[in-house]
Design goal:
103 residues; alpha/beta; Rossmann fold; 4-stranded parallel β-sheet; 5 helices; 4 strands; 42% helix; sugar transport; PTS_EIIB_3
């Protein structure tokens, strides 16, 4: 169980397709009584947010950038959301991954 507020970046090409996942992840956090600040952004803005995040989730459409994002983020966990979980908006599974990574 996470005891502090978590800050998560949800990254895609333009920041739009992740908007729905953002809302669903916020609902998941609320169900678990976890304070979470989840921000959906386009990949072009990622550097602006690196100093203030605990975890970076990449939408499947930007999986190609995972290696570069990991270099940029150095000590921040980065993972690409499973394309089926993303397509079906399975926020419960994605949030479980966040919890595992940050525990």
């Amino acid at each position: 169980m996470l005891h502090k507020e978590i800050k998560v970046l949800l990254v895609c090409n333009a920041g739009m397709s992740t908007g729905i996942m953002q809302v669903k992840l916020e609902e998941e956090a609320k169900k678990k009584n976890i304070k979470a600040q989840i921000l959906a952004i386009p990949i072009s803005e990622i550097e602006e947010y690196l100093n203030d995040t605990d975890c970076i989730l990449l939408g499947p459409q930007v999986k190609f950038a995972e290696k570069d994002v990991k270099k940029m983020a150095s000590n921040i966990p980065v993972f690409t959301i499973n394309s089926q979980d993303f397509g079906l908006m399975r926020a419960d599974k994605v949030f479980k991954q966040i919890e595992e990574i940050l525990s």
